[in-house]
Amino acid sequence: MRYLTTIGLEVHVQLKTRSKMFCGCAVEYGAAPNTRTCPVCLGLPGALPTMNAEALRLTTLTGLMLGCDIAPTCKFDRKNYFYPDMPKNYQISQYDLPLCVNGAVPLHDLAYPKDAQKSIAHPGKQVGLVRIHLEEDVAKSFHFENSTGIDFDRAGTPLMEIVTRPEIESPEEAFAFLTALRQILVYGDVSDADMEKGQLRCDCNISVRPETQTEFGAKIEIKNMNSVSGVRRALAYEIERQVGELTAGRPLRQETRRWDDAADQTTLMRTKESAHDYRYFPDPDLMPVHTAPLLDAARTRLPELPAAKRARFVQDYAISDYDAAVLADDRALADYFETAAKAAPKPKSVANWVLNDLLSALASAGKSIGECPFPAASLVEMIGLIDSGKISGKQGKEVFAEMFATGKTAGAVVKERGMEQLSDTSALEALCDQVIAANPKPVADYRGGNAASLNFLKGQVMKLSKGQANPALTGEILQRKLA
Amino acid sequence: MSAAPDLDVRYIAQLARLDLSEAEIATFQTQLGHVLEHVAALRRVDVSAVEPTAHASAVFNVFRDDEPRASFPPEVALSNAPRKANELFVVTKVVE
User: Fold this and answer.
1) Do A379 and A476 share a domain, yes or no?
2) Same domain as A141, residue A125
3) Which member of A49, A225, A348, A350 lies 3.0 to 4.6 Å from A22 by CB, making a disulfide possible if both were Cys?
4) B25: alpha, beta or left, given left = phi > 0 and alpha = psi -120 to 50?
């Protein structure tokens, strides 16, 4: 029996604002506990929330980037529940009138896990969205042996919830969705979307059913995943577990499970019987929002999206689809490449240096492109020295390594190391004459038809010039003189 | 009771984490029933041409700029905490 998998994701994204959603406390990752609080985010009685306009603009911008319909009017509601991470006993969220509806995230090949890029089931797939709404994050809990400690610094951070349609069919597609979404969020500067810092968090709904069955299987929710690869592993585990249950004749029921990354398995949290009843109602403290002015502001900030950038790189710089995709994967890398490519006569060689040499140098140094020791202009200068014959391609690698280690410009490195190639014809001719005079036997061999002897003579010229003779030019001069 | 047949005081008390006696449940069932009866008068009004709203006044877009302001020092933030340790509010262990 074959089984079909259906996955839907709920992604929470912390927005990149300076202050919280409903109060002026600073949003700062890693601050000392309970140093970013006020009556509003502590939920003290009588405190009144005021919306952060920037959070609304960033959510609207996200909606535009993902092709959503932006509601003309939206409002905020109270989601009621008791938990110490939310001391006013409700979370301000959006229920029936969210800011954005519909839209989609396109999955490009490179967004898939590396080992799955060769076997993509649906190339060019778009995962549809149900909605995007805005809410406030809750406090952070630390669980000790006999108690729980609460830090309210995170409470009230603007949090965007993105809900997909149940259109994801495999753990690899879920991985690609999160990778592609993250990329777009970073492009729009909407969020740093760092999963390790909890800036992007994801809950999964997953069900399996025999392929002969039309209605969805029991929906199982998985919580507590903090990496994209963790999401993939949790989903793979769940598919196997659920299919195993069904195969053994044990029906599944709706439930919530927790992913344990260390144990590589999910465990039961709660069943449907204890599902929450949130009793949503409109928050009387917050007036409704007309989105027209937010849309106007967001439109001016709409960036070139990854898909458009990839296509343009192929078009403008004559590089392959794959190279364009790798470059556009990281907005900072794309910017670095483009700065260099615009200034270089041959953008293709810039792409080669960035993709081969620069990326591997950065990877082995554990650096990001933002920490690259030299600016794009230095790379262009170095490539120019090779193209003009001042240094050889081999010397170029050496110069590159030195630039990466010290941050010096290409010109400075070449000068310091006395690397400049000898391309002065009259000087080279003199060297060639010297070598011809000193090596009568190889000269005779060459004239007698032994072409390999030319290489020997070239080698002698290189030696005499301490490696600085332009090899191509030397070869030409020798050939001419010995003809 | 007829005006609010779906009012389940026992369930609402549970959602509100209220521990009510049987006598209290009966009392509140009656009292809340009266409140709902009163509100139910709205059902007799024709609202077919009225736009639904949660607010009486038509005020929109009350925003603040994204400017951080000073927060409480931690000792003030924690001054009402029944229990605290390591600059954290401490509560009975909760594990969901």
Assistant:
1) no
2) yes
3) A49
4) alpha
Same domain membership, residue A372 and residue A343: yes
Take residue A282 and report the two structure tokens written for it.
């409109």
The encoded tokens of residue A408 equal 């010096």
Contact with chain A for residue B72, Cβ under 8 A: yes
Place of tokens 């396109």: A106
| A 14-73 near B (Cβ less than 8 A) | 17-19, 23-27, 32-38, 42, 50-56, 73
pTM: 0.85
Asked whether A75 and A288 are in contact (CB, 8 A), the reply is yes
Residues A278 and A349 occupy one common structural domain: no
More confident residue, A445 or A423: A445
| Coarse DSSP helix, strand, coil percentages of chain B, rounded to the nearest 5 percent | 35, 10, 55
How far is residue B13's CA from residue A125's CA, in Å, rounded to a whole number?
A: 48
Residue A109 gets which letter from DSSP?
G
Q: Which amino acid is at A279?
A: R
d(CA A227, CA A243): 24
Number of domains chain A contains: 3
Q: Is A283 found in the same domain as A188? A: yes
- What DSSP string runs through A305-321? PHHHHHHHHHHHH---H
- For chain A, what is the total number of helices (H) and then of strands (E)? 16, 18
Return the residue matching tokens 């009292």.
B31
The amino acid occupying position A347 is P
Structural domain for A430, as ranges: 425-482
Q: Which helix (DSSP H) or strand (DSSP E) does residue A223 occupy?
A: strand A220-225
Note the pLDDT tens digit of each residue in A162-203. 999 999 999 999 999 999 999 999 999 999 999 989 999 999
Q: Could you tell me which of A62, A60, A6, A10 has the C-alpha nearest to residue A201?
A: A10
Residue with token string 């809900």: A163
In this structure, the answer to whether residues A143 and A223 fall within a common structural domain is: yes
Minimal CA separation from B60 to chain A, in Å: 5
**B contacts of A54 (beta carbons < 8 Å):** 65-66
**Per-window interface: A 73-92 vs B, CB < 8 A:** 73, 75, 80, 82-84
How would residue A483 be classed by pLDDT, with cut points 50, 70 and 90? confident
A142–B88: do the CB atoms touch at under 8 Å?
A: yes
Q: Do residues A169 and A2 lie in contact, with contact meaning Cβ atoms separated by under 8 Å? A: no
Quote the minimal CA–CA distance from B23 to chain A in Å: 25
**Would you call B86 an interface residue with chain A, using a CB distance cutoff of 8 Å?**
yes
CA distance A131 to A71: 10
Tell me the per-residue pLDDT of A199-254, one tens digit each, with 9 for 90 and over: 999 999 999 999 999 999 999 999 988 899 999 999 999 999 999 999 999 999 99
Assess: ipTM above 0.90. no
